[in-house]
Specification:
Length: 205
């Protein structure tokens, strides 16, 4: 096992995520979620490694609203993951809840339930209580069929909801990574940052 500081993993995370196909702005947007989930569950980096092929799938899916009525909104993530689109989907849920007071949102064809604790706590900090149901049932490597149901209610904000005991402990003591997880993070980071040709090495700062 290797112990890495939370800020150090946060420094590596955006570039590592870019190397599995997440665009630059989006990678920085979800880096905090990756680091928090690794600190709390110890499994976020393994998720990236295990799903590297479908995260890199091209063209990248574009979530879209496919149905909207007084009872609920249905969003089709078209095989995307909560690592890629979770913050944006939950920002949409927050906006719908602000407008209606409470709202049900169903997200179809999505995987990555490991990131739900972060997204629920993040919403609580912003004054939205979420009840989520996610019987994730992927059918084959590239056909996730999980359907996430989100029941959202506007409530007083809960400052510090993300500051769980597990996360504070990681901030104080560092995050333990297995040798395989550490190799994954550093390997992805170095693919982007380390010069790979003689000419690029010569011109590297």
């Amino acid at each position: 096992m290797i112990t890495i500081a939370v800020p150090e993993l946060r420094r590596y995370a955006p570039d590592a995520l870019r190397m599995v196909g997440i665009p630059i702005g989006q990678a920085d947007e979800v880096a905090d979620m990756l680091v928090w989930t690794q600190a709390v569950t110890g499994a976020a980096v393994k998720f990236v490694q295990d799903n590297r092929a479908r995260l890199n799938w091209r063209p990248q899916p574009r979530p879209r609203v496919v149905d909207e009525n007084a009872d609920e909104v249905v969003v089709d993530l078209r095989g995307g993951s909560l690592l890629e689109f979770g913050p944006r989907v939950f920002d949409f849920v927050q906006a719908e809840t602000a407008a209606h007071g409470s709202r049900r949102v169903r997200a179809r064809a999505v995987y990555g339930g490991i990131f739900l604790p972060y997204l629920v706590a993040r919403a609580a900090e912003r004054g939205v209580h979420l009840d989520v149901s996610f019987p994730e049932t992927p059918q084959g490597d590239f056909e996730p069929r999980g359907e996430l149901t989100i029941e959202a209610t506007r409530v007083p904000a809960t400052p510090g909801a993300l500051q769980t005991d597990a996360y504070r402990s990681a901030v104080d003591r560092g995050i333990e990574l297995s040798d395989a997880d550490f190799t994954t993070v550093i390997g992805l980071f170095e693919m982007l940052r380390v010069p790979t040709s003689e000419r690029s090495r010569t011109h590297a700062g």
